[in-house]
């Protein structure tokens, strides 16, 4: 049921009170009672017509209903947009944790980061202490999955929050060792599509295709 605001209520009251007022005013016009009756009838008909158009017309109520629905939808859209912002913040944190390259805000892509072995700069020749190369098939020593190296960093390059979560005080030294971005083999059923791991946790697998 559409809400009747104060302005609409005031309009209805004015229309209802206009009829008796017009009747008393009409008593001062006309030369005889017949003319006063005719004037009163015309005023009654005009008042009733105005009242029906404003309050009893389907079109008038349809317009009020459309206005009410429009305001309701605007409120729902505002809530949806606020929810998207919250979800975007959560997704951004998850993407950082799992090593994703880009974060998204709404429908537009945010600035591209060079975190997680996805630098846009050409690094050639490769330093000698980077033992593995892009394209090599590896196996994870602890988790057992296989995958392909798709990028590397001379040391861990990630947001500070991710590094703190990944490396507690006892493993701080691993942050300064070479890190590799791994595209994980789906056949392992590991649950993640990529990983960002230090060199000591992986080993090269020969004669295996992923």
From TrEMBL:
Pfam families: YccV-like (PF08755). Keywords: Signal. Residues 129-210 form the Hemimethylated DNA-binding domain. It comes from the Eukaryota. SUPFAM superfamilies: YccV-like. InterPro entries: Clp_protease_adapter_ClpF, Hemimethylated_DNA-bd_dom, Hemimethylated_DNA-bd_sf. This is Hemimethylated DNA-binding domain-containing protein. It comes from Aptenodytes forsteri. The lineage of its organism: Eukaryota, Metazoa, Chordata, Craniata, Vertebrata.
